[in-house]
Each structure stands twice: as structure tokens, then as C-alpha cells.
Amino acid sequence: MGGHSHWTQIKRQKWANDAKRGQLFSKLSREIAVAVKQGGPDPDLNPRLRLAIERAKEHNMPAETIERAIKKASGSEEASHFQEIRFEGYGPGGVAILIDVLTDNRNRTVSEIRQVLARNGGSLGETGSVSWQFQQRGHILIEASPGQDLDDIALVAIDVGAEDVQIGDGRVEVYTQPSDLHLIKEALLKRGYHVTTAEVAMIPKTTVTLDEKVAVQMLRLLDALEDLEDVQRVYSNAEFPDVVLMEYAKG
């Protein structure tokens, strides 16, 4: 399993507690609002909104909260004030980092990101400094249920249009063209597979393997960036030792 998926799993565990859930729902509501402003309130006609709603559901955001966010965005100018910005930077060990934000104050966000990076052994880079190390792909994570064979899941995924699959730790990672993500996800769900996450993500072309000390520092940096109000997603090309991930997830 790659660094992206490992971190995704840890985030899901951390977001599950009550203290983090409100913060997550705020980020998800902001994402829904911006999607509505860009493409309208109908998810059937607005692919970005559909993905935002699906992501919210994956994180157990109540249906009424999702509907409220859509209605609020439909009748408000608030979402139009947000800028979408992608920052690029470096973490400890030379790890490449992409930080996607929705902000109504660029200067504040830049300052906060720079401070978090500096405190955790990282630095802010110029536009284009690390983005070439990533590619946009659809990413689906399937957890095998009892009796399901990982190889069978992988073959089915390829059969319904996946570009690539990776197997490990009782899970199958499925990679698709971004435009094919929804169709392939629905095809896998119809076949009875448990889709944990499905998103369009920036996937690293190659990864950087970290030793235990640097890996812990990197995980703390990712956590701190995720905690910033304006930050929607953080991607890196870090590869973490399993022992570090297990210990960090407990904390």
C-alpha cells in the first residue's frame, strides 16, 4: 500500500473522534458550497458536487447537513469569496508535498502553511517545484470482506475499466482515469465490494522511503497541515514504515 493510502487510513481514524468531526464537516461543507457555486446544486449535472457529496457520505456526514450546505450555497454569495489554491513544498527527508486549500484570505493561509512547515522540518516551494512528481488519478480503496479473494477483486476492477491495481493488507487499491472514477466505483459496488474511499487524488509517480525518526516527523507535519482550517487536502510522496504507522495510528 502506498503512502497516500496509508495516510488516508490514518486520517479516517483521527477524523472519527468528536473533536475532529466538527472540523471535518466544516471543510466538507466548504467544498460542497464551492462546487455548487461552480456548477449548480444538481449533483447529476455537476460532477464536482457529486464527488463532494460522496466524500461527505464516506465520512458519515448526515444527509440533512449535506442538504443544508447545498441550500445555503445556492442562496448565498459566501462560497464565491473562496479561492482555490495549490501550494507546493517540502517535508523532512526531501518529501514532496502538495497542499490544496479553499481560502478567503490568501495571505493568512500562506502565513499559516509556512509556519507549520517551518516548525516541522519543511519549507514552502515555488509553483511547479514538486507538482511534476504527481499525477491526477481516480483512486478507489476496497476492503475485502470475509470470503472475498483479493486477486478476484483486482481482476474484476481491471475488467470494469481500472487502469491499475495494487494488492496488500487485506485491501485493493484501484487507479482510474479521473473521468472514469464514478462509473468504476458504481460497478464495484454493484458487485458487492466494500469501497472505503473513492476520490480524484494527486498520486505520486514515485515515493520516498523514510526511516522511523523522519517518518514520525513527517506524519506530525501532515497532521498539522490537515488541522489548518483552509486546508482541504494534503498529498505527499512519503512511504512510511509499517511499525511507525501502527504506533502513530494508536496516538
Can you offer a commentary on this structure?
This protein is of the alpha+beta class and 251 residues long. The chain folds into 3 domains: 3-80, Arc Repressor Mutant, subunit A; 83-132 and 206-245, Alpha-Beta Plaits, CATH 3.30.70.980; 133-204, 2-Layer Sandwich (Alpha-Beta Plaits). It contains 9 helices and 10 strands. It has helices at 3-15, 18-39, 47-58, 63-74, 106-119, 150-159, 181-190, 212-227, 242-250; strands at 83-90, 96-103, 123-124, 134-143, 164-168, 171-176, 194-204, 208-209, 231-236, 238-239. The strands form 3 sheets. It has a 4-stranded antiparallel beta sheet with strand order 3-1-2-9. α2 (18-39) packs antiparallel against α3 (47-58), α2 crosses α4 (63-74) and α8 (212-227) packs across α9 (242-250). The chain is globular, with a radius of gyration of 18 Å. The two termini are 21 Å apart. The mean pLDDT is 89.
